[in-house]
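Exam review. A common question shows you a sequence with its structure tokens and asks you to describe the fold in words. Practice with the pair below. Do the first one on your own.
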Amino acid sequence: MDDLWMPIGSLVVIAASVAAAYSMVTADREAWQKFATENKCEVIGYIAPQVVPTTGLDSKGAITFGTSTIPSQRTWKCADGKTYTR
């Protein structure tokens, strides 16, 4: 039974981390929607998602190759005179 506590504890930490990250993203999205509504923001542009190549070094110093994804973004023009990209 003692051997199970480590994996169970790890799963609890991972689950809590995912829940906290989701909560922060949701709160940010809700705050932006409130701001956009109050400031009469309108979408004026769209940037499609992008996949870019990446390079790096592994723990033994060998070169590694991979890809990274940049999510889509929208550009907003708001009544406060500013332009926002999110």
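Now try the second one, then compare your answer with the model answer below.
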Amino acid sequence: MKIIMMNFFNKKRISDKLITENISAFFGENIVEHLNNTFSNDKSPNYFKLAPDNYKLFISESQSKILQQRKMKRNINGLTTMNK
């Protein structure tokens, strides 16, 4: 299981954020409840959710472009090669 932070208003311009992964359902449920009780409320833009291991994080289009630019820059500098 993994704990993710999602946008409460389901806006497609804000990416999900991975808080932790490889956590048991028992501990995950308790941690998510605590995080939501502590950091989320009616006016909070985010909430926390327990998701299965195979859950794919949503990445906004703007964030995706930034990540792609960083990959290309590293490739140009000879630090890594791009995956095709």
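Model answer, second protein: DSSP finds two helices and three strands in the chain. The longest strand covers residues 2-7. Full marks require stating both points clearly.
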